[in-house]
Amino acid sequence: MRTALRRLAATTLTALALTVPLGIPISVAAAPTTTPAPTPQRGQSQQFVSLSIDTVTPSTVTTSSPPVVTVTGTVTNVGDRTVHDVQVRLQRAPAVASADRLRTVLRADQGQFDVAGEFAVVRDRLDVGQSSRFTVALPVRSTDQPSLGINEPGVYPLLVNVNGTPDYGGPARLDDARFLLPVLGLPRDPSGTDPEAAPIPPSTADPVAVTMMWPLADRPRLAAGIPGSADERVRLVDDDLATSLASGGRLEQLVAAAEFATADDLDRDHRLAQSMCLAVDPDLLVTVSNMTHGYLVVDNAADPTGPARPGTGQAAAVDWLTRLRQLASRMCITAVPFAQTDLTALQQAADPTLTTRALEKPADIVDGLLGVTSLRGVTWPDSGVLEPTAAATLTGLGPTALLAANAVDGVTTQPKVPLEGGNNGGPLYAALFDVPAATALAAVGSTPQTPTFTPSGARYELSDDSRTARLQDALGAMTWTALTSRSTGSRMADANPRSLLLAPPQQWSADGDEARAVLSTVATMLRSGLATVRTLPDLVERPAAPPPLALDYPDQAVKDGAPPSVTAGVAVQAPEVDALTQTLVYDPQSALTPDGFTAPLSEDLLRAMSTSGRHDADRAPATAAAEQRVGQVGAALDRVYASVTVLAPGGAYTLASEQSPLLFVARNDLPIGITVRLQLSAPPGMTITDIGDQQLPARGSRALQVPAKVTDTGKMVVDVALTTSNGHELGESTSVSVRSNSYGKVLVIITAGAGALLLLLAGRRLWHRFRGQPDPADEGYEGR
């Protein structure tokens, strides 16, 4: 089942012979035969066969289900030699008695599965690479024949064990597969006729109030570094979302499962619909909404502005969004943080705009694109945990409920508790979800995950389990609280009121069958009386006055969070985006606003801090993509600033007078207006007047006339640059040659001297006239 156990089994399989306490007939694909237990042998140290579970019927036992549990599976020879006498048997352990055992029992020693059937041959010979299917069937209970011996409701661990004899070795235990079987009630014992053979329903004296989150999220798909536009098609890094939205795709199946399970003919009293709440990532909605208008897919994600091809998912996006609108119109819906942003990284980036876009804007996006009024005052981080100082990111949101798992050292206690160090805008409360159930639900699907909040003792390699086994584990974990009395339950079950918040991972990879099985189990709990409805609005209402509890941030959260290199890059780029927004011009006649132009860049920074892909064993691809996204935002800012420039004039200016103005042309290639300042470096002999802030129209140019005064003649050089109103350089600076025909001080001196001489001559003439004397200057002209 799991690598570690397989290796342990391989090294000790010939040293241990499994004792069969009771011979129990089972049915297998081949004719069943009885064989003795394996004989101890030594010397084998590798895995020879792999066992997987294909189906479990019924997946949940109820009073009306078949009285026989049937398991089908496959045994595959994965070793380097033939295996003979391949045999399987079914075993059962006691009912799970504590919440932590829901995971650890799946790693327990085989000896704890002490109710066992006898071995039956699946195949006499299994060659290398060969597979063989088998079927095992045992009654739930029986008074006159061997059975699983289940006599009361509960969650029971089951194990399918495979033995065989490899070439050059002896009989040995070669592999096993384990899973949980939820028993919500016992069906009639067909072998008995007395009252004890009647169906046994579960106790409904103390039902659990259940709330089910239904997440719809995806990893970031929009190409980075593309500012907003009123008419251009968006670009995606790939076209995988088209497949996910189309019929049979992951996101389509999640919506279809919710549609089916909450339909009027199936959910007649609407109790399942009331207990559910859609949790939608606004980044997904933004992407899908843009896809409905047509979109492009870039050939290379590292070159977002490079060659691109038309996307194929426009029709699928239209259909999916229409169906989601219809579903959301009759159900609770809330928004999760934008792009599954790491809230710890968000707090470290310390940018108010990013905080608003991550935590406040999502609800507006959901309401606007789906035409609903979403539930406000709820914050559900993708990691399921919140670092204490990161609670500051919720400042100003008002009374806020945090859906998390890490209050009080990660131990689930009361369903709603106030936290120490609430925000300034209102108290912060935690609605704690069930950790074992959330851990098991995260393992369901094509891409199993181990959540950040899962305790270290419950973490193991999930890929060794089949999808069917992982689904069974989830169904068992979901129902355990309802089937367990308070006296033997967890601390959460001891709380009052008795509550169960079920939270799959936000980017859940369950398919349609798995999703329907999960919802069917919740519906069965509600119908049977094991559970009652608790809506999410009711769950997150402020409690009276429970004692404050602290947040405990696990070490795993640091590994699963945005890396420091990304957070540092975001902290650098976010103020640059804010500064650009402030310098853009709002035009009521234009569909493109300053916020609309820069919003994609801010959102790219949030996408860079996404925890999507951070739960994988190899986080390197997620880290590389995040670092690339931050870099592309920086490159986009450079392109924006390079799109606004002052045009260098040809030749040189010639000033006709000492106060002739300088004329420049500024060009704006952006689809939105921008406020600029002309920066001129005047040489000695020239004084230039600052003309202040100037607005350039979208995709246009404007002549800028600058008053200048020169006091020298000759050729001068003026350095010219264009900046934003807050000082960021635009385009490239240039230099302008200016020729002045003004004589400056020389002209003033000559003019002053000539004037003085003129006054002197005029005064002398008047002096001679007053005295009646001829002016010597007139000599020779008297007779003329």
TrEMBL record:
Instruction: Cite the entry's keywords alphabetically.
Output: Membrane, Signal, Transmembrane, Transmembrane helix
Q: Which residues cross the membrane?
A: 743-762
What is the residue range of the signal peptide feature? 1-30
Q: Does the keyword Membrane apply?
A: yes
Name this polypeptide is given? Glycoprotein
